[in-house]
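Exercise 3.2. Students should predict the tertiary structure of the chain below and write it as structure tokens, then compare their answer with the key that follows.

Predict this chain's 3D structure.
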Amino acid sequence: MENKHTDLPWDSVENPDCENAQYDRFLVRCKTDYPGVRGTVAMCGYKPNAEFIVMACNGHYELLKLCKDSYEALRDIINSADNNHPYSARELEDNFNDTANNLYDEIRKHEPDFE
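Answer key:
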């Protein structure tokens, strides 16, 4: 899937030069090729917010792919039930189980206690 923004991965780092002392002074950084901009583009913010932004951005395309795969697997099950596709029960189960396991693994990366 093609990125429609700056390249991944993004990261967060502490910024000791942040002017607002009430913040934890964290930056969200991404590489950029925009004319006249070198290095990183950054925002000052709370550490948990910076980490959440980084996690959401870095995981976006994988999560979107898993959602699409899940949709297609469920669509195949529904269509097969309507006899629109000649899949066997075993083929449907194998396809859906692989997709569900991949989605589960991705969720567990971010929510280790997810059951």
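Discussion points: The helical segments are 47-81, 89-110. The chain has a mean pLDDT of 76.
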